[in-house]
Write a structure and sequence with these properties.
Radius of gyration: 23 Å
Number of domains: 2
Number of helices: 16
Helix content: 40-55%
Strand content: 5-15%
Distance between the termini: 61 Å
CATH superfamily of the largest domain: Glycosidases
CATH architecture of the largest domain: Alpha-Beta Barrel
Largest sheet: 8 strands, parallel, barrel
Strand order of the largest sheet: 1-2-3-4-5-6-7-8
CATH class of the largest domain: Alpha Beta
Order of helices and strands: HHEHHEHEHHEHEHHEHHHHEHEEEH
CATH topology of the largest domain: TIM Barrel
Shape: globular
């Protein structure tokens, strides 16, 4: 339609707005007709910049218990920040073949009563850590990683959402002049929102604040319910082309979290559960669990035949979601709790997840460097790499 050839007419205010609305619908309809849906190769979501930046996030490791998950009396102190992860650790990470570090950062110690103000001393420690990572030629994801009570407030307290957005605006502005190709800002780790529609709104609000603070940096966004892959496929992309989307993968949790004292209560009973799963092994382990309902989960795990094919079928759904929408995708957490899993089974699961991600063009970040899922163990002042895990990751 050639709108320029239409004769000018006088319209009432109501008719004028109706005309504008109709034109908008027509333009949007034409765009959708060209792509078939709101995503795709011709989509406004597709950003060469975001895809180029995602190439920096192909093989990564999570640096946990440094600026987040600090549960004991050490606290968030200068001594802890300077000794928990050192330049030697970052050099080892680089030498192993990782290309980026996802740095977990608990916002609570930085959140003051004054809007847009971050304690200078704390920020100095964080800057030193980020600089140390960058100086070793690695990219860094600054991942806001609050505790559950913090996330619970976001699910119901609108003013707290605004406060969180103000904090992010200030933090993003602080890092806005850093290396835009290697510094990434992740809105929040594992949102604990059971209302996925509320999370859509909260994430949109916070992402807008991040973008105001740092116009040139790339944002990392996620789905609700602990960043799960099935929540990712519910999401629609933000109205911002410079965004990378992510999900976490620990399926099946009954294997990856056996013996864990968090999450599902019955996990702490589990010992000796094998991967790939088999009915025989599951039936042998099931009697360890007192509750019949939980024992049923064990039996199902055995009969679901969890192995490489099943894992790839799950990951393909996330890859297809990203492809349809024309957006870059990463998996920035996957791993196996070390305490009660067989090392060979753990290595097999990590290998199968890693190779499935790579076959589907998805960058990855293993959980974690030296924690309870670690690629290294630290004892008596010595850092020892787990060669089996490194081989499973395709690294040195």
């Amino acid at each position: 339609m050639n709108l320029a050839r239409l004769a000018p007419v006088k319209l009432s205010r109501a008719k004028l707005w109706n005309s504008i609305l109709l034109s908008t619908i027509l333009i949007t309809g034409c765009a959708l007709a060209q792509t078939g849906h709101a995503g795709g190769s011709g989509s406004a979501y597709r950003s060469p910049l975001a895809f180029a930046r995602a190439e920096r996030l192909k093989r990564g490791i999570n640096a946990s218990e440094w600026f987040a998950q600090v549960y004991d009396k050490r606290g968030y102190t200068a001594e802890h920040f300077q000794s928990w992860t050192t330049a030697d650790d970052i050099a080892l990470i680089k030498s192993m073949g990782f290309d980026h570090v996802r740095l977990s950062v608990n916002p609570e110690p930085m959140l003051t009563r004054e809007p847009n103000k971050i304690p200078v001393e704390y920020l100095g420690y964080l800057d030193a850590a980020v600089k140390m990572i960058l100086d070793h030629g690695l990219a860094v994801v600054i991942d806001l990683h609050p505790e559950s009570d913090f996330k619970a407030r976001l699910t119901k307290d609108d003013e707290f959402v605004e406060r969180f957005a103000d904090f992010w605006r200030a933090l993003a502005q602080h890092y806005s002049t850093w290396d835009a190709d290697r510094v990434f800002l992740e809105i929040m780790n594992e949102p604990e929102f059971t209302d996925r529609y509320r999370w859509l709104g909260v994430q949109m609000k916070v992402a807008a604040a991040v973008r105001e603070g740092a116009p040139g940096l790339t944002i990392i966004a996620a789905g609700a319910r602990w960043s799960s892959d099935d929540e990712l496929v519910f999401q629609e992309p933000l109205h911002d082309p410079n965004v990378i989307y992510n999900f976490h993968f620990y399926e099946p949790h009954i294997f990856t979290h056996q013996g864990a004292t968090w999450g599902a209560y019955y996990w702490h009973w589990l010992r000796g559960l094998k991967y790939p799963s088999s009915p025989e092994n599951a039936e042998m382990v099931a009697p360890l669990v007192p509750d019949e309902v939980d024992r049923l989960q064990m039996i199902r795990y055995g009969r679901d035949h969890w192995g490489a094919d099943r894992i790839e079928s799950e990951i393909k759904q996330a890859a297809a979601w990203a492809q349809r929408r024309g957006v870059p995708l990463v998996c920035n957490e996957f791993g196996v709790y070390r305490a009660y899993s067989d090392p060979e089974d753990r290595d097999a699961w990590i290998h199968d997840v890693r190779t499935a991600l790579e076959r589907n063009g998805i960058g990855w970040t293993m959980w974690d460097y030296s924690g309870s899922f670690g690629v290294v163990t630290k004892k008596d002042g010595k850092t020892v790499a787990d060669d089996g895990v490194l081989r499973a990751l395709g690294l040195k």
